[in-house]
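Notes to self after the Tuesday call (sharing in case useful).
The group wants a holo model before anyone commits to mutagenesis around the pocket. I volunteered. Ligand is glyoxylic acid. Logging inputs and output together so the record is complete.
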Amino acid sequence: MKVFVTRKIPNAGIDMLREKGWEVLISPHDRALTRDELIDMGRGADAVLTQLTDKIDGSVVDGWGSQLKIIANYAVGYDNLNVKEISDRGVLMSNTPDVLTETVAEHTFALMLSIARRIVESDKFSRAGKYKGWEPFLLLGNDVCYKTLGIIGLGRIGARVAHHAVRGFDMKVIYYDVRRNNEFESNFGATYKDTPDDILTEADFISIHVPLLPQTRHLISAERIKKMKPSAYLINTSRGPIVDEIALRDSLKKNIIKGAAIDVWENEPLLTPGLSDLENIIITPHTASATEETRQKMGEIAAKNIIETLEGRNPPNKIIPK
Ligand code: GLV
Ligand code: GLV
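Result:
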């Protein structure tokens, strides 16, 4: 068997594949591959371990050859995979849920606390030697505790963010999802809202946890941002294109909302011009799952999905085409 890994990942997962005695080809370039490079290096592979920066459609799969059995995406999100075209070719796909839930939820909370308490601004201020002694009005932020957190998209990550909010900060949680979750509601005293708009008008902090789909692109539009309270903060650790980034920039500039913190950008790695000049936004470079522990586990899960498939069993994290 031949496995192609499109970019170096932590060793644990690679070792699992090598221990099978399979040929494991890892891209020698420490960067995202071009489409032609992807096709060339993966030709003849039985399994390909992809990154979220690899755009895989039917024609890439055709280039790899009909022996291909699985594409194991090194991410929980899989909007980089054309699920229909890949499954039409009889190729399985898997992602890495669960192992990164806590890490992404932690990053979401770190962003929420950091924007509310102006941590990044305060750090820059301190390093610049601007602190001249205690002041009553120096760098005032807002409390997080007892506020209302609005979650849009209640999957594993959204639910874990709610856990921190309720158990750690006594926040009130409201949520919107295409499906209602009664168990979640009773566990966390959470309230279901029928539309995303109901979340936007009521919440003090809004955290987005939906997958990127045609129907979630620009879910947070200029009109929707206008519905938020002027005191509200928007947090996005899902996928950049869910928020209209130009609208976000303009709204922050005009103080239509109080602040935002984003880990994902609409056009990574390019940031909407002007966004980085604003003090009321914190920007991290798609690092919400980036801990040593979690990246290792993601590699192990991706490897496990490949192993199960190539040995003729069901991969545990199979992506089900809708
Ligand atoms: C990261 O964005 C992921 O989907 O795992
Ligand atoms: C991601 O796995 C989620 O369900 O939130």
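Two things stood out.
The chain has a mean pLDDT of 98.
The CA atoms of residues 208 and 254 lie 22 Å apart.
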